[in-house]
Give the backbone structure.
Amino acid sequence: MLELQLLLIFMIIGAIIAVKEKDLLSSVIAVGTVGLGLSLVFLILKAPDLAIVQLVVEILVIIILIRATIRRDLPFSTSGRWFFNTLVTFVFIGVFLVFIYLYIKDLPQFGQPIMKIAQRFIAEGLRETGATNLVSSVILDYRAYDTLGEATILFTAVMGVLAVMRKVGRKK
Amino acid sequence: MAKNQEGMTLIVKTITRLTVGLILLFGIYIVTHGHISPGGGFAGGAIIALSFIHIMLAFGKEVTFKKMNQSVMSFFESVGAIMFITFAILGIGSGYFFLNFMLKGKPFKLFSSGLIPLYNLAICLKVGAGLFIIFVILVLLKIPKKGGEK
């Protein structure tokens, strides 16, 4: 698990650089390194489906960020109540860490006991659905309602983007 | 050569002409083998959308819209959604919503596992068209500069 921790440290450093960098293009490239690191993490945790999706969507998002947003002169707000904001952020991080610790303490060890439902999927999935890719059999057969919701979300996203960016309804 | 000034340089256009078909084929492979090997409708649809984005970045918007204009994109997106819902509703005829009623076939074959490849195809059409529409909208339509108070 050493390589996993090294990758996580790399991603945290990339995220900090992305926040602190003044140049927008460098910042977007730093965000891209975080996403590619996440794809490698999925590959190490033996989830190739997620790794493929993460890699492809990351490339798409980086292209959209570079082409669509970088050329606009976006307003920067560097002034403001710096001390108060930092204090509130650290307080919320502390509260969150305490609750997360209380919650994670009771969880089972990482990947140790296979849960009841997952055990049934592994044992009976191939016989019941005929698909050798278990992830595909779960998202398109056992949990197909999730996929229906995901398709609805994409449709709503397209309609929302079109409604925000179109020219017809905008007042001069 | 000089007839199309839009887009990037000659090097990028030549390389794009060579690689974009391979990217499209890889997306189709990922979709059709989604029930056998890692992949599936979402990843394959995103790769297909990326191949069209590749054409658009290299050649500009006019060449792209000659291959894939707006009505085709909205047609594919609607067809994906309607296919998905239709296969789900067909399951009611022999049981319940989302029932996988077709024959399962042998494992590790391309035509196996009933309705799952068709679901993958529907998701692929929907995701590919949807992501490409989002890209086109965000790149082409621009928010006008603020001239004053609205």
